[in-house]
Amino acid sequence: MNSSMISIHEIATSVSEAIETRHSIREYLPDSVPDEILQKVFHKALRTPSWKNSQPWKIHIVSGEKRNQLSKELVKAAYESTPRPETNWPESYPSDAKKRMFDLGMKIYEMAGIERKDKEARNQFMLRNFEFFGAPTAVFITSKFDLNYYVGIDLGCFLQSVLLLAREEGLGTCAQAALSSFPDVVKNSLGLPTEEKVILGLSIGYPKPDSNLNRFHTPRESAEELIRFY
Ligand SMILES: Cc1cc2nc3c(=O)[nH]c(=O)nc-3n(C[C@H](O)[C@H](O)[C@H](O)COP(=O)(O)O)c2cc1C
């Protein structure tokens, strides 16, 4: 199956199609996602495997007025302060990864029509993270577990389940570490206990069809480079 054969606006009918056609969506239609569709996605995702079946996740699905209010509070926090994640954001990367990350940023700005040197426009675009890129629903993945490598793997597996199941419902998604920037704001808004850590968020909704930004597919390193058979 060639990923060019099916678009993000169609429903993926196999795991292969979902993997090949999923990409991050950063412009959405305002149309809300019916509750039963969200329930289908997240209930199925609970089948995700985890270390000794520990299931370190809690999922908070935020739509409507609550979503709008939380978005406002997150944008305000981003204007007034710097990120204060409780998840140890990584600080160093190998040089080849740094290049991929730089290229990603440049390409996204180009697709969004933002001049590389226009710092204000870049900042404004960054703030779109906290508007959930216009998606009608935001999701926060939290955990009460002590964070370690394997909890991270479990949560990553959960995330991928959600991203792929969303494709099966014709939905677009964008995983967002940015949504862990202000955990206190999220906890206050959703009434979560202090010990529940805000690990990651994602935007979910119907992709805007005529969006230049959504047309962008990130490249991958070659299989020859990354996979070795013995
Ligand atoms: C753990 C994780 C955190 C991410 N955080 C953000 C984010 O904060 N903002 C954003 O726009 N994209 C974010 N992304 C999306 C990545 O940039 C994207 O998955 C990557 O560039 C590959 O592109 P693709 O998803 O279109 O295939 C995140 C992805 C993952 C898996």
Automatic annotation (TrEMBL):
Domain Nitroreductase, residue spans: 19-206
Pfam families assigned to the protein according to its UniProt record, in alphabetical order: Nitroreductase (PF00881)
Upper lineage: Bacteria, Pseudomonadati, Spirochaetota, Spirochaetia, Leptospirales
Keywords: Flavoprotein, FMN, Oxidoreductase
PANTHER family: IODOTYROSINE DEIODINASE 1 (PTHR23026:SF90), NADPH NITROREDUCTASE (PTHR23026)
Top-level taxon: Bacteria
Protein name (record): Nitroreductase
UniProt KW Flavoprotein keyword: yes
Keyword Repeat: no
InterPro entries in the record: Nitroreductase (IPR029479), Nitroreductase-like (IPR000415), Nitroreductase/BluB (IPR050627)
GO molecular function, one term: oxidoreductase activity
